[in-house]
Amino acid sequence: MNEVTNLLMNHRSIRHFEDKPLSREQIETIVLSAQAASTSSFVQAYSIIGVTDKEKKAKLAEFAGNQSYVAENGHFFVFCADLHRHDIMGQMENKDVIPAIESTEKFMVSVIDAALAAQNAAVAAESLGLGICYIGGIRNDLEGVSELLKTPDRVIPLFGLAIGYPSKKNDQKPRLPLQHIYHENEYKQDEAVYREELEMYNKIISEYYDERTGGKRKDTWTGQIAGMLEKQTRMYMKDYVQKKKMDLR
Amino acid sequence: MNEVTNLLMNHRSIRHFEDKPLSREQIETIVLSAQAASTSSFVQAYSIIGVTDKEKKAKLAEFAGNQSYVAENGHFFVFCADLHRHDIMGQMENKDVIPAIESTEKFMVSVIDAALAAQNAAVAAESLGLGICYIGGIRNDLEGVSELLKTPDRVIPLFGLAIGYPSKKNDQKPRLPLQHIYHENEYKQDEAVYREELEMYNKIISEYYDERTGGKRKDTWTGQIAGMLEKQTRMYMKDYVQKKKMDLR
């Protein structure tokens, strides 16, 4: 353990920020840290859109299901998978890059590139004493988000990242047992053991909620997540991504 | 700037490692750091497979196009998008989660979750004085990788992460200009400016290669990447992912 791993392990999402904007220097440090992350074969297949316009932030908060901290924070970033740049490059170099950039492989590459950059941004922000919250909620309405941020074809806004000075700190939710996430040499084959690990984790989560709510809530993890997944949200995504000319072949 | 942002901005991929395995404590610190990353709605849709078996590592190196550092390192991790766990959970809770876990939305969630965790692992490793290299090359043959690591349906090995004690340090390649990656309030609409930024970056990259190779190599970035994308690699990916019952609807 050291200062950095301490910082990583102490992460929690922040959903209440002071009304104090980030400085230009902070924004640049965060973006440069994001850019320093690894990128698949040097393709740099992502873009970051900083949103400062109040109306746009209010609209994004609405898309995200009225999460106030999408509008109220120090700075709001949107991380995008971006192969538009590569389309332009193909034109500049007179090379047919279209089959590649329309492939599932390059869709995955662009999503991974954007996420690696975002996590560096998150870590950089936390090292500056700021709090962060990923906002997957913008995916409730990516048509709306694309229109608002004027993203071209082959650009998919993936998630927001709200950053700011924390005004309230949340607890840290216990993660899955290490031995359940981490396999050695092969994926765990014994389903009975797999289920036991989930049951063990259910006890931990249930106790966590019990303590935190004074007995009002005792959800298990599998109950909570299976209940959420049963609801089938954002089922328009395949059409949207393909309309944006990605993940097509 | 602080110690953490310095560490992030000084990242470079390491492709030569000493013959010295990571300790159990180092592995656990890295995995726990990975797990501390944000996860979409608490779904924790990823798994990590550590590979220590020499034959398996040799095979993975072969899949990755004979990259020696896939076999020779301190520890080799494979990060997987994982919705198998959620399939099991649906069975445990008697909820129909299948349409959700077969959606493009949840495929994206699982890829993002895995990448956020991986980047925390990478940062943790570098903070311990270790070097890292992402290995997208395992995606050359995911059928082979799945068979080798016995991953079930709804698990997609995304990339490897080779970690170890660096024996040779590479240079750091300059990234795209900040103003090209970072947009404000809307995606840059002026294509002429967009292309100028790419041309400006081409000069930077060309000078970088020129200096580094004593004039032998003067590639531009757009030339290098468009040339790579023209080649259409890993076009089997869509079939593979769908065969694994992800990104289906």
From TrEMBL, chains A, B:
One Pfam family of this chain: Nitroreductase
Regions crossing the membrane: none
GO molecular function, one term: oxidoreductase activity
Highest taxon, organism lineage: Bacteria
Keywords: Flavoprotein, FMN, NADP, Oxidoreductase
CDD domains associated with the record: NfsA-like
Keyword Flavoprotein carried by entry: yes
SUPFAM superfamilies: FMN-dependent nitroreductase-like (SSF55469)
Statement: the UniProt record of this protein carries the keyword NADP: yes
Domain Nitroreductase: 9-165
PANTHER family: NADPH-DEPENDENT OXIDOREDUCTASE, OXYGEN-INSENSITIVE NADPH NITROREDUCTASE
Record-stated family: Belongs to the flavin oxidoreductase frp family.
Name of the protein: NADPH-dependent oxidoreductase
